Structure formats: C-alpha cells, structure tokens
Amino acid sequence: MNVIKEMSKDIDNLIECCNQMIAYNGPIYRNGSGFKILVQKLDNLIDKNHLRHSEFHDALSFLIGRSHFLNNVELRMIITALSNLRTERCKHHIDKVFISHSENDKNIVLSFVKLLESIGMTNKHIFCSSVNGYGIPIDENIYDYLKDHFAKQNIYVIMMLSNNYYKSPASLNEMGAAWATSKDYIAILIKGFEFVRIKGAINPQKIAMKIDEKNRLDEIKDKFISAFDLPMLYQKEWETKRDDFLSKINVINQENEVL
C-alpha cells in the first residue's frame, strides 16, 4: 500500500472514531479510554507521516490540550482538520515521475536522471525510456503501459522540450497523453530551444523553465524530496551536484554544436 493510501485509511479510521464519540453525545473525558485511544491514534498518524511541528499538529495540540474533555464541537473540528490534511497531502502526492523526451536528447536526459539520483530518487520514483533500469519492462507495449499508469497513478510529467522533441511523434503523443489525463507537468527547455517555439497543449508562461535555471532546479529538488519523503541534502552538497550537472550539459551542447 502506498503512503497516501495508507494515510487516507488511517484518517478514515480516525474520523470514524470521532463520529462514534459524537454519537455518544456527551463529553469525552481525558482520563477515559476513548480519549486515550483517540490521542494514541492521532500520535501514530503524526509520527508515521512526519507531521510534528506542522500546522495540523499545532491545531490538534491546541484542541486536545486545552481542557479536561472534548465536546462535539471540538470533535467536529478534529474531523475538519483530518479532512483538510488528506486533501493537502493528496494534492502534492506523486506516485512516479515520467520524463518525456526525444531519443536524440538521451545524453542530456541521462545527466538529468543522474541529478535526480543524487537526491535519492531511484527507478521506484522515475520512468525514463532511454536510461537503463528506468524503462518499460521488455514484455510490455509502451503505449498500453503508459495508458495504464496514467489512468491508475498520479504521474508527474517532465517534458524535455527541444527541436528533436517536436520532430518525434512518440514525444508529441506523450505530451498529448499528459494533457488529456490532466497530469501535473513541467516543460524543461533544452539549450537552443526558446519559449516562443513551444506549441501544443502546454502553457509556456506558467509551467516551463530553461534547463540551466538554478533556482528552478532548486524548486524541482525541493518538490521531489517532499513528494517522496527523501532525506534532505545539505545545501552546499546539492549546489555542487547541481553545478556539476550544468557543466556536463554545457559540454554535451558544445559537442552537439560541433556535430
């Protein structure tokens, strides 16, 4: 069971617990078994999902810690807080990252995958057809595989846009699939490709960046660390890995220009 589904199940159990207490229609005293069970379940939810010092944790601490009992109004406030938590976490949840690209840009894409690996991402988090270990299983049809995953999972799509991308029917089909299934996505422009040349179903002003924008790469790093609950990197360590990546793609671009 993935993290979001497990958390959602825990929240359902907690909401049911609160509803049973509301049906009791009387104060739930701190020294009673019902109060202690509720607090224990809430603590388990907070610890399991790293919610200490979050707004959710602070709100619950205020509600539960301010009196010797809980009334129905406070129980309904706990239910609201639980529902809001589920909505917020589901909004930011990602099952997997799909990197849509042209085969002719695979060297740059490989360097980008290596950068993602440096923050702790693996083939559990990334699907990228041209990188060994990150592609579609050999016995699967690529289009059926993508269709199935787009339908059943929350896939975050990275489109590596270039002149090569727009010459590739397969890449354009992937762009269309991301748009048709309303997947969250970002367009990353490979050097030599400009915003004005973006066509198709995406909004270049809202969700596009150039591959050498350091601050946007920082945002991607933060997004995936949060989405996949990866260990945090020291900032200087990340900056070194990020700048190494930028140096590598500059070399690749220079080699491509010579060719």
SSE topology:
Layout: H1 3-24, E1 28-29, H2 33-48, H3 55-65, E2 69-70, H4 72-92, E3 96-100, H5 106-117, E4 126-127, H6 142-152, E5 155-161, H7 163-166, H8 169-180, E6 185-189, E7 208-210, H9 214-227, H10 235-258
Parallel strand pairs: 3-4, 3-5, 5-6, 6-7
Antiparallel strand pairs: 1-2
Helix pairs in contact: 1-2, 1-4, 3-4, 5-10
The helix-strand sequence is HEHHEHEHEHEHHEEHH
At CATH level 3, the topology of the largest domain is Rossmann fold
**CATH C-level class of the largest domain:** Alpha Beta
- Report the β-strand fraction as a percent range: 5-15%
State the end-to-end distance: 48 Å
Describe the structure.
- By secondary structure, the chain is α/β, with parallel strands linked by helices.
- The chain folds into 2 domains: 3-92; 96-258, Rossmann fold.
- Helix content is 57%, strand content 10%.
- The strands form 2 sheets. It has a 5-stranded parallel sheet. Strands 1-2 form a two-stranded antiparallel sheet.
- Helix 5 links the parallel strand 3 (96-100) and strand 4.
- Helix 1 (3-24) packs antiparallel against helix 2 (33-48) and helix 1 (3-24) packs antiparallel against helix 4.
- It is elongated and about 75 Å long.
- The termini are far apart.
